[in-house]
Amino acid sequence: MVDVLGGRHLVTCKGAAVEAEVALQNKVVALYFAAARCAPSRDFTPLLCDFYTALVAEARRPAPFEVVFVSADGSAQEMLDFMRELHGAWLALPFHDPYRQCILPLLS
């Protein structure tokens, strides 16, 4: 996944930017596509949060697993609100990142 996201920055739920290469190095990465307005996303996100939290807590540091959220929300503010409300301590592709803009149409 570092090959795909290399050279990009990811964001935390607190808005801090991190380099994808550093954050994802030697990790299994799950891309999580979701939106706050989607009921199944709102149902599944807390389950993923619990799974991620448990996995990271039990793993040797650094944990070999990372979730990268790719928002299908309608605005950057909706994305941040959803992340702050329900997400775990995982990373996200910034709302205005060109990769996000290219990937989302392929999902519909």
Automatic annotation (TrEMBL):
PANTHER family in the record: NUCLEOREDOXIN-LIKE PROTEIN 2 (PTHR46762:SF1)
All copies of domain Thioredoxin-like fold, residue ranges: 26-101
Organism ancestry: Eukaryota, Metazoa, Chordata, Craniata, Vertebrata
Protein name (database record): Nucleoredoxin like 2
InterPro entries linked: RdCVF2, Thioredoxin-like_fold, Thioredoxin-like_sf
Alphabetical GO biological process terms: photoreceptor cell maintenance; sensory perception of smell; visual perception
Any Pfam family hit: Thioredoxin_8
